[in-house]
Specification:
Distance between the termini: 33 Å
Radius of gyration: 21 Å
Shape: globular
Largest sheet: 6 strands, antiparallel
Strand content: 15-25%
Structural class: alpha+beta
Length: 265
């Protein structure tokens, strides 16, 4: 039986290229939190022998996927950024969400975001920013701690308990967040129970001073959250009650629109 036989289920392991897999494993270490690494650190984190790690890093440098810094560490090169940008622009989820998100941004006059969960962080896939929003330098491709964001908490709330336990570590509650940031696992679990009950998540100056947001899920074909969409507002202009009124109604309608588009594409 050949790989092209109709009805055949290919044995994908037969086509596994170990060297390519190791190269991708190295690139995956640079996750938005880890910005640069030494080759010895790459070997330690991946379990790849040092001589092999050295050759992989050298190859990725030659091809432009890694760049050497003045201190001897390496960081993602321009080619990685280009691939990431192309992947997000070409994502079916991003393309299908574009019009509903723009309509939501126009209707509310506020910042609108679309994100997915990557381990214990939220990856921003789309962002339509209101110019007066006081926030950190967040852009498409940024990741933020899921524990301090409305999108992150919403998506964490729907994980199976064992998966939630695996993803949450002490590093998930890093210092430097907003004044109302959840202090630890016990407090977060109480919040997640409320989110599952209510069907939406709010963060009130947990990520940063002066920033509030509300999120709802975008559902995949299996009925589980595939992504989250939120509306972020300035705490100086919008009281918390605003997030549970018309904004939440419009947000839910937008998420339902995106969900329908995903299921009928």
């Amino acid at each position: 039986m050949t790989p092209g036989d109709a009805g055949a289920e290919p044995d994908r392991s037969r086509y596994h290229i170990a060297a390519l897999a190791k190269g991708l494993q190295v690139l995956s270490l640079f996750d938005g939190v880890t910005l640069s690494l030494r080759t010895s650190e790459i070997a330690a984190l991946t379990g790849i022998p040092m001589p092999t790690a050295f050759r992989i890093v050298a190859t990725l440098e030659d091809l432009g996927y890694l760049e050497r810094r003045h201190d001897g560490t390496v960081q993602p090169g321009v080619k990685v950024l280009t691939l990431g940008s192309a992947a997000m622009r070409g994502s079916g989820l991003v393309q299908l969400s574009d019009r509903p998100l723009r309509l939501l941004a126009d209707a509310t006059g506020e910042t609108v975001n679309l994100g997915v969960l990557v381990e214990d962080r939220v990856l921003y896939l789309a962002r339509l920013r209101n110019a007066d929003l006081v926030t950190a330098n967040v852009h498409v491709g940024s990741t933020l701690p899921a524990t301090y964001t409305s999108m992150g908490k919403l998506l964490l709330a729907h994980l199976p308990p064992d998966e939630l336990d695996r993803r949450l570590t002490d590093a998930s509650f890093a210092p430097g967040a907003g004044p109302n940031a959840v202090p630890g696992r016990a407090a977060l679990l109480a919040q997640l129970a409320e989110i599952r009950r209510d069907g939406y998540a709010v963060q009130d100056q947990e990520l940063a001073q002066g920033l509030r947001s509300v999120s709802v899920p975008v559902l995949g074909a299996d009925g589980a959250p595939a992504a989250a969409v939120n509306v972020a507002v300035s705490a100086l202009r919008r009281p918390l009650a605003d997030l549970r009124g018309e904004i939440l109604d419009r947000l839910r309608a937008t998420a339902a629109d995106i969900t329908t588009r995903l299921r009928t594409r």
